[in-house]
User: Which sequence fits this backbone?
């Protein structure tokens, strides 16, 4: 007896009506019954294989997502530690796995922005907007990059579009304020900064831009107050110390100004303006040697800084060295003829 025949008989016996081993008249043919069993087993096998494939695919995708998220987490930590280049590399690894992740593109644009790579920041934001045209944060980040490239009209357009999409974004107001400040539209800058600060009372850039607007309109007390707030929110912002120091100098608070210029140098030794400002202050205090030293350092850092040659010329003249004074004055006028105007 063939194997299928034996199996059929065994299956049939489980439904016997008697003890003679013969199927009842109502049972299906043994061969037909076996064929159905085989088909059912093939179907079960196919389902098992399909389910197995789903499980494997899920495991692969889960590992893929975890790896991408791991790169993003490392990048965010590096960004907080101001290790911008390393953060960019980690975000790029995440994008290698998912090039269409708008969230990762926006995060990498922030890292590029912090690293001063304005063009690359703009490129990432633009790519994110191609994928998601109503992504407000992409407009915010791109407006900041345009602002730093002095493309103020584009900065205003992007910040305004971001606010059309989401009016609760304080950085969008602040970026637009910075653009208005550069355009000399000080009232509009103050208005936007105030709106930003209503949404985020600790947004240093909004205080900074409003302080600049007050300074440019001659309101030194309000400018000083906002620079104080800027430094409270971001104690590492070099330009805030420089600008506050300049106001304190104008207001006759010389020691406080000296402290701010020195603090700026401590925070960023390579900032030529910080050395120039302190050198100018030293000259007003009669410390010509310190003035010459600071101005010389400013020139080393930026050889085209006309004001440093001009201030050093004055320090040399007051120190009795007319030849060096004439040489520095000549160089200063070559770089900026307006210094010789009355």
Assistant:
């Amino acid at each position: 007896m063939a194997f299928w025949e034996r199996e059929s008989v065994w299956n049939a016996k489980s439904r016997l009506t008697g003890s003679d081993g013969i199927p009842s008249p109502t049972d299906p043919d043994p061969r037909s019954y076996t064929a159905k069993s085989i088909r059912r087993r093939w179907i079960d096998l196919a389902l098992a294989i399909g389910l197995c494939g789903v499980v494997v695919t899920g495991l692969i995708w889960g590992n893929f997502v975890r790896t991408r998220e791991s790169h993003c987490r490392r990048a965010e930590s590096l960004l907080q530690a101001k290790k911008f280049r390393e953060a960019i590399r980690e975000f790029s690894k995440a994008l290698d796995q998912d090039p269409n992740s708008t969230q990762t593109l926006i995060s990498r644009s922030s890292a590029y922005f912090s690293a001063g790579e304005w063009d690359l920041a703009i490129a990432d934001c633009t790519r994110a907007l191609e994928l998601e045209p109503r992504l407000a944060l992409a407009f915010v980040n791109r407006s900041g990059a345009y602002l730093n490239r002095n493309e103020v009209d584009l900065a205003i357009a992007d910040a305004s579009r971001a606010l059309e999409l989401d009016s609760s974004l304080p950085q969008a107001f602040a970026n637009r304020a910075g653009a208005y400040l550069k355009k000399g539209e000080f009232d509009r800058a103050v208005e936007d900064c105030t709106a930003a600060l209503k949404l985020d009372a600790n947004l240093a850039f909004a205080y900074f831009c409003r302080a600049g607007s007050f300074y440019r309109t001659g309101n030194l007390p309000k400018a000083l107050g906002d620079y104080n707030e800027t430094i409270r929110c971001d104690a590492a912002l070099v330009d805030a110390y420089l600008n506050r120091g300049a106001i304190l100098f104008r207001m006759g608070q010389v020691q406080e100004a000296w402290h701010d210029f020195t603090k700026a140098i401590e925070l960023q030794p390579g900032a030529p303006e910080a050395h120039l400002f302190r050198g100018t202050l030293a000259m007003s205090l009669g410390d010509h040697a310190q003035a010459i030293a600071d101005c010389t350092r400013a020139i080393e850092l930026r050889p085209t800084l006309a004001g440093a040659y001009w201030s050093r010329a004055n320090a040399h003249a007051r120190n009795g060295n007319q030849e060096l004074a004439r040489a520095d004055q000549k160089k200063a006028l070559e770089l900026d003829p307006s210094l010789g105007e009355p």
